TrEMBL record:
This is Endonuclease/exonuclease/phosphatase family protein. Signal peptide: none annotated. Keywords: Endonuclease, Hydrolase, Nuclease. It comes from the Bacteria. Residues 39-269 form the Endonuclease/exonuclease/phosphatase domain. Pfam families: Exo_endo_phos (PF03372). One of its GO terms (molecular function) is endonuclease activity. Residues 129-148 are annotated as: Disordered.
Amino acid sequence: MTDWCVTINLGGPRQSAVAQEGMLAWTQEIMAGQCPPLMIFAQETFPEWLRVVRAAGYEVIEGVDRQWKVRSGLVVDKALSVRGLTEADLPHLFYHGNYVSAGLWKRPDGSEAVLASVHASPSYAEPERYGWPSDAGHPKSRHGGSDPRWPNHRLWDSDYLLMTLRHLGDTFDLPLLAAGDFNESLLDDPEGGTWGSEFFSNADSLGVSSWLHEEWRDDYRHERPTRTGLQLDHILVARGGEKLLRSDPAPETDVRWADPRRARRLSDHAAIWFALAEQP
């Protein structure tokens, strides 16, 4: 039987009460369905939603608590063996705080993998202010093809997130599966622009690749919009992490977001469903 996963940015406290209620109803609907998710890679969680998933028998692994309002959660079925990772396992996690939650998954066959629910803050990086490890180095900067929206060589939080994913894979020397809101999209590059393509090129240079870009390669620029015409939500893998995933059935955005009237009562990000590979 296929093990389903879903990645979703819930919108958090910034969403309207109607949208929050919609996401609670959506969550209860999928958990009561024929194929409830084995894992949820959630961003911008809120307390009522966390109570719902815990009551349904899930464990929630959260990031380093720095008392930030924006919080990610790695939500896993309690039957799974997943240990939450902290800054003691990787100092980079302190920098990301509540935006990144990560865990070490011991699979039924005895193999292990690193899982991460990630959210890049859509802001300039401030490594000194938020505690980037002094010995970790810094990301490669982008120039953006002279697009005035993106100042040349100014680093953003998403750039540091890529470095953290690379270090997660290197530290544990295990397959890595990271899903969430990266606030980066190839579709946002105008003609001649390179901001998004540079981001994913930098990811490739770090050994981190976009699984969805490969799976959706027949679509325009290998992306499908998840928020206001852009694909900001991605699934990235490293160190053989693609072997944890299945291409059949194919990953898809949740059909509930296809109806604009219904989507207005949900998160402003469409959920992405994907399947884990069957256990050996």
